[in-house]
Design brief:
Layout (H helix, E strand, L loop, with lengths): L2 E6 L4 H12 L6 E8 L2 E8 L2 H6 L9 E7 L14 E2 L5 E9 L2 H8 L10 H14 L5 H11 L2 E9 L6 E6 L4 E4 L4 E4 L11 E4 L4 E5 L4 E5 L10 E2 L15 H7 L1 H11 L11 H9 L2 E6 L1 H18 L3 E5 H4 L10 E7 L5 H12 L4 E5 L5 H5 L2 E4 L12 H21 L2 H5 L2 H16 L2 H12 L4 E6 L2 H17 L2 E6 L16 E6 L3 H16 L3 E7 L9 E3 L7 H19 L18
The structure holds 5-amino-5-deoxy-1-O-phosphono-D-mannitol.
Amino acid sequence: MCGIVGVVGNSNATDILIQGLEKLEYRGYDSAGIFVANAGDASLVKSVGRIADLSAKIDENVQGTAGIGHTRWATHGKPTENNAHPHRSETGRFVLVHNGVIENYLEIKENYLEGHHLLGQTDTEIAVHLIGKFVEEEGLSVLEAFKKALHIIEGSYAFALLDSENPDLIYVAKNKSPLLVGLGEGYNMVCSDAMAMIRETNQFMEIHDKELVLVAKDSIEVQDYEGNPVERESYTAELDLSDIGKGTYPYYMLKEIDEQPTVMRKLIQAYTDENNQVVVDPEIIKAVQEADRLYILAAGTSYHAGFATKRMLEELTDTPVELGISSEWGYKMPLLSKKPMFILISQSGETADSRQVLVKANAMGIPSLTVTNVPGSTLSREASYTMLLHAGPEIAVASTKAYTAQIATLAFLAKAVGQANGNEAAKNFDLVHELSIVAQNIESTLSEKDLIDDKVRGLLETTRNAFYIGRGQDYYVAMEASLKLKEISYIQCEGFAAGELKHGTISLIEDGTPVIALLSSDEVLASHTRGNISEVIARGAKVLTIVEENVAKEDDDIVLTQVHPYLSPISMVVPTQLIAYFATLHRGLDVDKPRNLAKSVTVE
Ligand code: M6R
């Protein structure tokens, strides 16, 4: 989704902005731009397409000591140069970048901007015209004008504003969209994502909603919209540059798939003590014990991870678990139990749909736990409790290691709560041992990449559609596997409960339709799925099977070592991640940057 970078007090502003924007590329965007200024000199450069296209337009004259840059993922208006950020005020003096959606932008245009000449269709251009008007037509100071505009603007935003006549200060404000201050030596920065700045610094300062920050080269001043000063400490981000590089990998997705055994082991370290006993914050355990129902809210892959943990959470904590799609619940909460607890699963911790649910839950006084990969993210800050995924930055749009880490993290929660409750199954569930087996199992799957690549070539290279089928937990993995395949390879793929095929979907099976069947260790479910496999073969389907060894037959395609049933979604999903990866490669597509998608979805 859109990204913001800004810097003040550094004569390399252009390079810092471009390198920062490159680090934000993974979030997804369709145009980009920078504005840089010195006292008396300024340049605005914008381009549709990649950062490389923007860089190609920048010559040695585009220099400054301060600047703001942006990657845009179109919401209002097509991806054109005029709609790309930064945007300028009517006279060109003020320059603004913005993430989010200004809900009342048309009203603002109608009520305040008569006679103004707008170059594009964006809500952002209206905001900068409004600020410019308050300074140049009403005589307010820049700070007063910014504040006045912030009182009028409704919606979600992260703003970074530069006054080209005084480019020694960046005016910053946020509401619902992420934004951070980065502290350099002798200069300071702003960014929507710490990764954009990690080359320059690992010292950051949070900005909370409805705060305004004045970022100068040697000072940071935080205040609320009424002008009251706010004290804020900086913190050190636990990220380093090597975490966000591709190393020798051709794509981030492959690197992240390969990192999964390490992530499993890191989770064991993070959630156990020196005696190998599971350790989870006692406050979190208590909150779960007090709940009469757990509600898991999430989007996309994180929602699928919720399904994959439902049975384990219910059986080990003796508490019913209900799943909800954040974008649905954000608008309409269903009837809740008397003592609900919300668990928000989110790799980024910034997904706007999930945040909308959390805001409502907080207003209703419902305790909440965020399970996220990003410490200090919005969902982490605003929930009652946080459990971290310890997966390291996930850059590829297609989520892989976060999904498996989400299941493993929730396994630690289920085990800890169950044990505290005296649940027999929880006591007997040797999670550390079982997760170590899973890590080894993933390693063997990863050593079979060539086999998987071969199978995919014949099956998915040219097909228009495909199906994943499975029963029980395999059905949940089928949902995730099909999302992975469709989002990057553009193959229309659905994940089905195998038993449902005959109730409609089987009519789509024709000669050569690829069907990938998942059969983990439950013998009864596997034998029923075998029946469904025969039904689709009889109608011409080309079938590929992924099975656990105890239910394997001679002609199965991918055979995995059996793992504990609670953890089978982790090991079953890995071959499907590789299937999506190779199918996308064979179709000549960009694995890491699928069309129309963004890594962190910060609009509702
Ligand atoms: O950051 P989140 O986990 O909240 O993101 C949720 C979804 O946007 C995300 O999982 C998305 O579905 C991925 N592209 C899937 O690979």
